[in-house]
């Protein structure tokens, strides 16, 4: 089945979510290694609710954390995209770029490739001016992607939604602007 992609990079297709993505995303979310730097592992229902929120955001805004397929075999591997963040901080509300991929796809450059293409879409198609990326300071892998994207570190802060999770509370925020 050929899925309709909103845009592509060299190896990846980015699209709106479908019901058939729910079981695979739930499987990715259930992997403790994938969710290592998050406060909890989402259950199946929470994954369904997340996908519904992404579908609604895509319909309203033209963006979301996009469902991502490998173009060579059309296999769904997770998400990469942009999303509104409204938690209370000095730099929100903002548009955040983020990614979550199946562990079997780590180390292949997909997060960086996909995030670069999403930034291009955000700046050149949507006309956005500024994108942030946020992660706990313990998440070295995500921070390395931010650096590869040539984002600039703008803050280290205590995330208000992670107060109950002391090992995750201290976060970094990176920013990139449309030049």
TrEMBL record:
Organism: Aureibacter tunicatorum
InterPro entries to which the protein is assigned, alphabetical: Acyl_CoA_acyltransferase, GNAT_dom, N-acetyltransferase
Pfam families linked: Acetyltransf_3
Gene Ontology terms, MF aspect: acyltransferase activity, transferring groups other than amino-acyl groups
Protein known as: RimJ/RimL family protein N-acetyltransferase
Annotated ranges, domain N-acetyltransferase: 12-175
Native organism taxonomy: Bacteria, Pseudomonadati, Bacteroidota, Cytophagia, Cytophagales
């Amino acid at each position: 089945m050929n899925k309709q992609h909103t845009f592509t990079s060299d190896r990846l297709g980015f699209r709106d979510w479908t019901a058939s993505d729910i079981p695979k995303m739930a499987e990715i979310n259930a992997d403790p290694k994938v969710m290592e730097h998050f406060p909890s592992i989402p259950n199946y229902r929470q994954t369904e609710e997340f996908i519904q929120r992404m579908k609604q955001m895509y319909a309203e805004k033209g963006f979301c954390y996009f469902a991502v397929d490998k173009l060579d075999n059309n296999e769904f591997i997770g998400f990469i995209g942009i999303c509104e963040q409204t938690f209370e901080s000095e730099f929100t509300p903002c548009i955040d770029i983020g990614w979550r991929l199946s562990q079997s796809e780590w180390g292949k450059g997909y997060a960086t490739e996909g995030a670069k293409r999403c930034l291009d879409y955000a700046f050149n198609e949507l006309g956005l001016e500024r994108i942030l990326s946020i992660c706990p300071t313990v998440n070295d892998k995500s921070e390395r992607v931010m650096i590869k994207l040539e984002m600039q570190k703008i803050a280290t802060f205590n995330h208000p939604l992670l107060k109950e999770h002391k090992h995750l509370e201290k976060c970094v925020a990176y920013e990139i602007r449309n030049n």
